[in-house]
Amino acid sequence: MNTNSEERIVHFLPDYGINGCLQFGYYKYSKAQPQLPIHEHRNAIELCFCIKGEQHYVIGEELFQLRGNDILIIPPNKEHGTGEYPEDKGELFWLQISCSDKQDRLCNLSEEHSKYLLQVLENISERIFKGAFQIKFMLEKLLNELKTSSNILSEITINQLIVQTILEVLTLSKRKQGSLPLKRLNDIDTYILNNLHRIIYVDELANICNVSVGYFKFWFKNIKGIPPKEYINRLKIEQSKIDLLKKDSITTVAFDLGFSSSQYFSTTFKKFTGYTPKTYISIQSNTR
């Protein structure tokens, strides 16, 4: 059975036929909530993805402070909670994965692959590292897929998204966390995420890095391989793929993402996806 409210959604993954996983949840709070009591997950690893805001967790006797775009992995059988802190204002996803000796193979992977992923996740637990936009989009797609799950294709998609998320987490955990280029990129991603609802100008991103617009464009393209404006638009289009399946109209999605008109949004969407928004909605609806 699923527990749902406006601010908090919890899906029990075994109900959807997903092997090796226990719970997938999401909250979006506009104000602080009561403290999360100290507890543990027996034979289960928990992955926490802080999308916006702040969240404090105490694991054992160590305090961890998560900010937007941070990831924290809590090892199995380890007491944790928010301590003296509330469940804070913000947005957060979590995923619980079983690591019991009697577990089913994770998302129908081979036994060897399942054990490998669980071991690596446990090895990188109890430390904070930076996420990436790809993670946010995967988690939102997973949440949307669980809301509309109705057939075998949905089950396959859910399994694929969970594995893809875990693999992305492992990749991100290997990045050098303290380097200046990574810090700049993390600051840029956080800024874009917080301002997806409006037009974002390149000079704003240059100011974050305290460099000239000309140098910023050169530096960014050298690091990312694409100009900053294209990067912003690609992220908005990725967000729109999720929003188009949830919101009432294409025009609403366009304006909510800061496009000046639905026509400009449709042109940009087709440029990056090969489809118009209307065709994309139709294709997605026909696969459910």
Automatic annotation (TrEMBL):
Where are the bilayer-spanning segments? none
The chain positions of domain HTH araC/xylS-type read: 186-283
For this UniProt record, the keywords arranged alphabetically read as follows: DNA-binding, Transcription, Transcription regulation
On the tree of life, the source organism's domain of life is Bacteria
Q: Which GO terms describe its molecular function?
A: DNA-binding transcription factor activity; sequence-specific DNA binding
**Matching SMART domains, A to Z?**
HTH_ARAC
Pfam families this protein is in? AraC_binding (PF02311), HTH_18 (PF12833)
Record-linked Gene3D superfamilies: Homeodomain-like, Jelly Rolls
Query: Mind telling me what this protein is named?
Result: Two-component response regulator
Species per Swiss-Prot/TrEMBL record: Aquimarina atlantica
